[in-house]
Design a protein that fits this description.
- With about 325 residues, the protein is α/β, with parallel strands linked by helices.
- The two termini are about 15 Å apart.
- The relative contact order is 0.14.
- A hairpin with a 2-residue loop joins strand 4 and strand 5.
- It is globular and about 55 Å long.
């Protein structure tokens, strides 16, 4: 089977040789990979494609279509505001909705590989919680739901138009296998907004975009860190079909999600904090996930970037176990 065959078989619970072997998030180049160079990883392996091949992982490639130009002013610190009000937003327009051509050129380079089934391609669009937060800053964004609702809706209406334009351009090159909305709407104890706020400020824009996304053959998935379980019904009602990364440290339980939502798609969930504790601990984590892996619609992966506390030898053990359990999971399909 090729890489795309495995992805779609996993999503549809169809017969396959194994589940995909993936690191959905890139490694920390300045920490994890830097450590591994000192432990024997060949230094000529510096890009994600060559690293995936070296470790025997499936080739998944992400294209992020960003809504803010790379030359836009940066906030003074992480989470600080770039704009404060409608006047600022109007002045900032020249940095918004950039020409996606540089990213489309990247997709074009992958088109033949994708057509042959040798790589899974996914795109990321900035979400309707994500972009207003980036613009207004973390604290001011939360106030803006109450103090500047019209501005929030104006931003997201224009973001919807931009995404529709980008999707049209993408479709002229290839049809990605899935997509993610970058959102991060949850923290370790649950969502950062209420269901009513979600339904007013986020869901309407999903509902405009998702029919177009599905028409292009993509699985629509939310990328949200933290404890996402309380949001699953909200997402399903909006047309979202899956979620990643399912962080175990936030208490996410994929078995509980599967019991509640038989068809919901999931990627991630492997507790990265056990990866430096030895083979027995790593195997126990796979045993926890195995029933859900076997249920279909779930692709296990490190629940975020592999941390620098994991040695190269430990990571090789993890990859070996991942392949073992990815094969065991589909034995009865």
């Amino acid at each position: 089977m090729n890489v795309r065959d495995r992805f779609w078989a996993a999503m549809r619970r169809q017969p396959c040789d194994r589940l995909p072997l993936v690191e959905w998030a890139p490694w920390w180049k300045d920490a994890t990979i830097a450590r591994w160079y000192g432990e024997g990883l060949p230094r000529e392996l510096s890009d994600d494609v060559s690293l995936r091949a070296y470790f025997g992982l499936d080739d998944w490639r992400q294209c992020w279509l960003r809504a803010i130009s790379p030359d836009a002013p940066e906030p003074e610190s992480h989470g600080a505001p770039i704009i404060s009000n409608k006047a600022d937003y109007d002045r900032f327009q020249r940095y918004l909705w950039p020409d996606p051509q540089p990213w489309l050129e990247e997709l074009q380079q992958w088109a033949d590989l994708h057509a042959r089934g040798d790589c899974v391609v996914w795109i990321t669009l900035e979400g309707f919680f994500w972009l207003p937060r980036r613009l207004l800053g973390i604290e001011n964004h939360m106030y803006a739901f109450y103090d500047q609702p019209d501005l929030m809706k104006e931003i997201n209406a224009r973001l919807t138009e931009y995404h529709l334009q980008c999707l049209q351009s993408v479709s002229q090159i290839l049809r990605p296998d899935f997509m993610t909305f970058a959102e991060d709407m949850s923290y370790n104890l649950g969502p950062m907004l209420s269901r009513d706020t979600f339904d007013e400020f986020v869901a309407p824009y999903y509902r405009q975009l998702i029919p177009e996304i599905k028409a292009l053959g993509m699985v629509p998935i939310i990328d949200s860190d933290g404890q996402v379980e309380p949001m699953i019904d909200w997402l399903v009602d909006s047309g979202i079909e899956g979620v990643l990364p399912l962080e175990r440290q936030a208490g996410v339980d994929v078995a509980a999600i599967r019991q509640k939502s038989a068809d919901f798609k999931m990627i991630g969930a492997y507790d990265k904090m056990v990866m430096n504790k030895g083979e027995a601990a790593m195997r126990a984590e796979f045993e926890r996930l195995l029933p859900t892996m076997a249920s279909g619609g779930f692709i296990p992966s490190c629940d975020h970037q592999t941390p620098p506390g994991v040695s190269l030898e430990q990571y090789r053990t993890y990859i070996s176990l991942l392949e073992e359990y990815a094969t065991r999971a589909v034995a009865d399909w």
